[in-house]
Amino acid sequence: MKELLVIKIGGKLLKQAVLDSHLENVISLAKGGKHPVIVHGGGLEITEKLGGLGKKTRFVKGQRYTDGESLEIVEMVLAGINRRIVGRINILGGRAVGISGKDAFLVEAKKLEGKHDLGYVAEVEKVNPEILHILLDNGFIPVISPMAMDRKGTTYNINADIFASQFSANIGAERLAFLTDVPGILENPQDEKSVIEQIKIEEVEELVRKGTITAGMIPKINSCVQALQKGVKEIDVLDGRRKDALSPLIDKQMKLGGTKIIE
To answer: Strand 259-262 and strand 234-239: pairing?
Structure first.
């Protein structure tokens, strides 16, 4: 069986020229015998769109609060981003198909419960991978937006980092790579050279307590921990601003940068 590799592309990278380089590397991975799956975010464009419509964005513990009106806008923006990525891959010589977690009930959502209500925000309860394997087995690169429904038909937004991590664990992915707009996890947030090359699961709680891991990085890393515990073998937080961030996955002689999270 080919290696399943999930690549999450952060929303801040989607309008940058470097995006094509990442997509070309994804195409190379697919042609080289792997099964890459793209999960994308869209937070920056969602915030811009909501702001343009006079709606203020509110974050709780690094996650976007999503009311009913905002949910429609979120889904619209993510759908547009999805089509752009698919279009670029196809133009660059790959074969991509865009879907969301709602298609063929790929992902069944469970409303995120906790101390703070986040509105129409969920986590991954179950993955039904049939449509995913149909696409992969026929040489297509799936591009997935992090929207999903529960069994009652209620639509939810899922934080793209959490979606990518939980999705990876549920489909038995070998590897998960996050393309972000930072060099990795930083010991000193003000110093981009202070990248922590490797973090063990048992170190995460202390790094959060110290403030090394903050804001939106908290749900990302916590979801990574869960993915490792459920069988994902390798997770990397990479500097997506570098066009060669994914190149070491193709050329094993190149050093992979960023931060590796291990069990």
So the answer is: antiparallel
